[in-house]
Prior knowledge:
Number of domains: 1
Order of helices and strands: HHHHHHHHHHHHHH
Oligomer: single chain
Radius of gyration: 21 Å
Amino acid sequence: MNTETLQAGAGVELGVRTNRTWILALVFVGTLLVGFSLGAIHVPLPALLSGEASTLERTVFTEIRAPRVLLAAFVGGILGVAGAALQGLFRNPLADPGLIGVSAGAALGAISMIVIGDALSLPESVRPYALPLAAVAGALLVTVFLYAFAAWFGHFSIVTLLLVGIAINALATVGIGAFQYLSDDAQLRTLVFWMMGSFGRAGWQTVLPAFAIITVAGVFLLRQARGLDLLQLGEADAAFLGVDVARLKRVVILCTAAGVGAGVALSGIIGFVGLVVPHLVRLLLGPVHKYLLPNAVLLGAALMVAADLVSRTVVSPAEIPVSLVTSALGAPFFLWLIARVRPV
């Protein structure tokens, strides 16, 4: 095979990837526009842009619909890219913020703040941000523990990763159960509703700081594409090729904890997105992180906006918890993924 043939093949492959990236971008934009428009109250976007929308439609869009849809997009995007980055870091296709306990740690931190936050006598200026900060702290603690456990034993096998994730999730469940027992009726209702996953609590005061944290975390994760690609060769080879492996691990761990923690604090526990999205993108575009990470953002955001749209329109004006929608879609895919891996 001559050089011209190789270059032509590489050019065709690049063109296919570029076209599919544009398709995913268009799907995301289309899903976002549909999400802005549809709901219990229909908001016609042309009328909104031309100034012909009613006062009710403008209020619904600016105060309820826009922050909710944007929060769904940001949470879906960070879960998708965090799942792809963790899978690359651990070189394990089953790693995601939920399976390895990061989401559970964020949930425990947020729930602890729901139950004991009033007893802390926090200043009024801090109260709106206490829940996201507690969730970030919980996610960070779990991620650091996971990294320390991996460093102590040298590496993660698939079995070890799943067992550690099961243990962390079990411990988090114990903590959540204890806080449920200690909570009063009002706290218990808030806690249960939060754990089922919903974007209904989105408001500009709380989502804007979360958007800032998620954006910064996502940008840093996207910049680790080359390092994650080289890390697939092994830590020694990656270091030989110029990758600061220790820094790469710290960046991925801290950014995953910060981004997922900020998202989970406002949306509650949402499963399978961080696991399913990277695999779907790999099927479309291959395993190169230069394409995998940004497209995981696009597909994760589009799927989450679509899941939220389903949750708030199927039984309108009531809502289905968004975690039920994502689990209903993700669990069959997870089973199919397991069935594809046939023993040799």
